[in-house]
Write a structure and sequence with these properties.
The chain is α/β, with parallel strands linked by helices. The protein folds into two domains: 315 residues, TIM Barrel (Alpha-Beta Barrel), CATH 3.20.20.150; 59 residues, no CATH class. The strands form two sheets. Strands 8-6-4-3-2-1-10-9 form an eight-stranded parallel beta sheet. The protein has a two-stranded antiparallel ribbon with strand order 5-7. Helix 2 packs parallel to helix 4, helix 5 runs parallel beside helix 6 and helix 10 crosses helix 11. It is globular. The two termini are 34 Å apart. The structure holds 2,5-dideoxy-2,5-imino-D-glucitol (DIG) and manganese (II) ion (2 copies). 2,5-dideoxy-2,5-imino-D-glucitol binds next to strand 4.
Length: 403
């Protein structure tokens, strides 16, 4: 019997948060529709569907007021479930958004006691993650924001977050945890406006940190889409800066609330270009599906959701390989990237180069005549995605070396 070419395997590094497959379907206008599932049972579900890793916020696993004895028991049980299922804990975070104490934010809140409590809670979440073997720590500032800018100067929020992240980096070093800290952006929800609304905002912020090398980003598809942005451009800028430490894969209709749909469920073409980018550059960090099943789903439907995330990723990975191998697509790429012999191309400044550039006469009318068959190129992409083009013409090899 042929094995499923789109079945997940550990090398794909597919992970899910406990809060994703454990999502009970509650929304602002409706109560939970699915019963709670214990963390150990969620790990068994992830093992059953073929996931590699599990992620968690501190309180997804340990109740906020648990005694240290109870906390230690929970951790022991969870580690055993992960070992039994061959599931690794790949990322941890602290829930700095659910408890009412964080109603004005956490690390950027006006009340110094709230900021200190949020920092303590984060330190303990880092301890927890280290015990579980996680090497990525995500900070999503879900409550860091405002409904009115009368409440604080926004640059005070920047300073407070920088002080907190610098402190956490010192703690990471002092304990030898070896975390890479990934900052996750979101433009709004649950706050009216979130600080650091996009991945780009965090890339700028990271340059101002004391340990910038230890800090990267965790872009989420839905969050960049909510801001009307192109997720692949955000991811590419992060990758180029060496800051793509983690990624939250899901899907989202632009301009809507945070839908956290199954990966590629809303915009498969955008998902294709994201997967193509990740695979072309050899991204090898966790592929985390920060998403949840439709509220209409039951427990079996949650498994369908998880399987669908991974399956769609692997289908699009296969489509990307076909795109890279497709002779007509490659021929068009070669055509549109042709050199311009003799033209002083833009390179590092030098006295000789700038003299040649200033002396060169451009025939802009002639230059403007070069064909750019993007309609054909995009239609070939659509043909591939819609399954009416194979991409791998038998016996042909790509005329252009794939990236
Ligand atoms: C929401 O997109 C956020 C939280 O679920 C979590 O802190 C982070 C990590 O994936 N994503
Ligand atoms: Mn989200
Ligand atoms: Mn996320």
């Amino acid at each position: 019997m042929h094995s499923d070419p789109y079945a997940p395997h550990p090398e794909h590094k597919f992970s899910f948060g406990l809060w994703t497959v454990g999502n009970r379907g509650r929304d602002p206008f409706g109560d939970a529709v699915r019963p709670p599932v214990k963390p150990g049972d969620l790990v068994r579900l992830l093992g059953e569907v073929g996931a590699w890793g599990v992620n968690l916020h501190d309180n997804d696993l340990v109740p906020i007021d648990a005694s240290s004895a109870y906390r230690n028991q929970i951790v022991r049980d969870f580690k055993k479930a992960c070992t039994d299922q061959g599931v690794v804990t790949s990322m941890v975070s602290a829930n700095l958004f659910f408890d009412p104490v964080f109603r004005d934010g956490a690390l950027t809140a006006n009340d110094p006691a709230v900021r200190a409590y949020a920092l303590q809670k984060t330190l303990r979440a880092m301890d927890l993650g280290a015990e579980l073997g996680a090497k990525t720590y995500v900070i999503w500032g879900g409550r860091e924001g405002t409904e009115t800018d009368a409440c604080r100067r926004p640059d005070d929020a920047v300073v407070r977050l920088r002080d907190a992240v610098n402190y956490l980096c010192e703690y990471n070093l002092a304990n030898g945890y070896g975390y890479r800290i990934a900052l996750e952006a979101k433009p709004n929800e649950p706050r009216g406006d979130a600080y650091f609304p996009t991945t780009g905002a965090y890339l700028a912020f990271i340059t101002t940190l004391a340990h910038a090398d230890m800090v990267g980003v965790n872009p989420e598809v839905a969050h960049e889409h909510m801001a009307g942005l192109n997720i692949t451009h955000a991811v590419a800028q992060a990758w180029e800066a060496g800051k793509l430490f983690h990624i939250d894969l899901n899907d989202q209709v632009i301009g809507r609330y945070d839908q956290d749909f199954r990966f590629a469920a809303a915009n498969p073409k955008a998902a294709f270009f994201l997967v193509k980018f990740l695979e072309d550059v050899g991204y090898n960090n966790p592929r985390h599906f920060d998403a949840h099943a439709y509220r209409t789903e039951d427990h079996e439907g949650v498994k369908d959701f998880a399987r669908g995330c991974m399956r769609s990723y692997l289908i699009l990975k296969d489509k990307a390989a076909r795109w890279n191998a497709d002779p007509e697509i490659q021929a068009i790429l070669t055509e549109i990237e042709r050199d311009r012999p003799g033209v002083p191309i833009v390179e590092k400044y030098s006295e000789s180069h700038v003299k040649a550039l200033l002396a060169y006469s451009f025939d802009r009318i002639e230059i403007g005549k070069r064909r750019l068959p993007y309609e054909r190129l995009d239609q070939l992409t659509i043909d591939l995605l819609l399954g009416v083009r194979d991409g791998r013409a038998a016996g042909t090899t790509p005329t252009r070396k794939a990236p």
